[in-house]
Write the structure tokens for this entry.
Amino acid sequence: MTAPSPPARTRTAAQPDRRDAAERAETGARIASLAAELRGAGVPAGVTEQVASVVRTAGLDAVIGLGAGMLTDEQAGAVLLDALLDARRRGADSAETAAELRAVARLQTVVLQLLSGLAATRSTTGNKDRP
């Protein structure tokens, strides 16, 4: 007679939830980092959105093939090229990469609005001090 096999280990809902949360946090950090790099390189959100459209229609490899010259500013193009190469290394497909770029563009827009609002607030409060 054989001993009964131990019951199969059941996965709790918390295990996949933790993994999903970690993946979302990693994606969010990647998007925030890229948005900051692109903003620092002077890439407007509209340009990021245009690149996302091209990635979606022409494919990730086609855009990577353009090299850093995909943007007029070589430094900005190099930042974007690095991000696209990273997406390919991670195994992201064109649709996923385009979605991430669109999220980056939204974040760039939000940051620009916040910075513009902050600048306007500072100039308005600065005017109150003047006679």
Notes: The chain has five helices and no strands. The chain has a mean pLDDT of 84. Helices lie at 14-40, 45-58, 60-66, 74-89, 94-128.
